[in-house]
Model the fold of this input.
Amino acid sequence: MSTPADASKSGEETREPWIVPRPAEVLLELPVPYRWEFTRRHPYYLRFWEPAHRCHTAPSNDAVQRGLEDSASLIMTLIGVTADPPPPSLTADALEATPLKEAWIGGAVAPVTFRGYATTLLAGLPPDVLDTLGTMLTACAKGDNTTNETRYRLINELKHVSHPALDTFPKGPVVGINLQAPANAILDAIENLVKQWKTEAGIPDQRRRDEKLPEYLKIWDLREGWVGDHYDSREERTFNQISQQLSVPPGTVGNRYRSAFRYIFGRDFTPELWGRVIGFLKLMDWMDRSEIPIRTLTRRWRTPSPNPVSESRVQPSEGNGTVKRLLDTVGISQSEIAMVDLELDLRSLIDEGRTNEEIITELELQSDAASEMIDYLRTRRADAL
Done:
């Protein structure tokens, strides 16, 4: 990826990846009700759940609209939502009868569905083996299944397919259990396998602190202005205000906020990441999209962070082989992208000690609410956020 300096030399705008996935292991740390509570607060969920819901329930016959729905569903998958997403207003208690609850069901141990098996195969096997299996599955579907003769013949043929990938273990911990063995023997074997897998993956065996999760959510909601199914900047509270309201030390408030941030976004908090995934939405409260300046500064404000996923990994090609930009497909406008750039530039200039007037002049801001917007970011900076 080119740097801003390289882009300025070439006259091309630097393009950074915009989709920030949430690692599955972060979501799996949570019990199902709290998977939902943290997920429905994710800005991607708020932005894309409706077209993703249509993708699952009533896909459009219009090619463009269907592309939007498919892309929204892919983005849902990147934050751990693999089933029909319910409205964000739904409470955890009402999640019980939804397909999403069924997809998330299970705690430490859960049966694997055929969809799970198929996903494991698609994710782990090389193309040539997938091609072989695809041919066998097609032959099985077209064969005489009344006596299962075709199935048995193909299973026998599979035993003789020579490919090393077929004899390796999937990355996920999938096991077969001999129910004829004594229960104690099964439990001992599972315990030994779990210890082995945890050691190989570098996962410590620690107690889950589920009792802290409501506190993380309460502080997140107060700080970000969550009001049931959306964010309202007018409802935000500073760390000091939250500390006084809840009689909790400011340092504890900050730590619990960061814990909530990690569960929602799957990554440790950085000011830059906050701006990319949620901060720009807050600025929309103050500035109309048409008033965003055409020119934004080259960003000088940067916090090291893991590279998010690129658009090419989640964007399908059109029929003519042309790849349409994912963010255009799912309805994110260039104005919204410019707002993220603007938010980063504002933070950079605030950190340099510029006055509101200096910032407004340098960034050519035209909105009457520009000064109020800058003051808002100053309050976030005062909280070290």
Summary: Residues 215-382 form one domain. The longest helix spans residues 183-201. The radius of gyration is 25 Å.
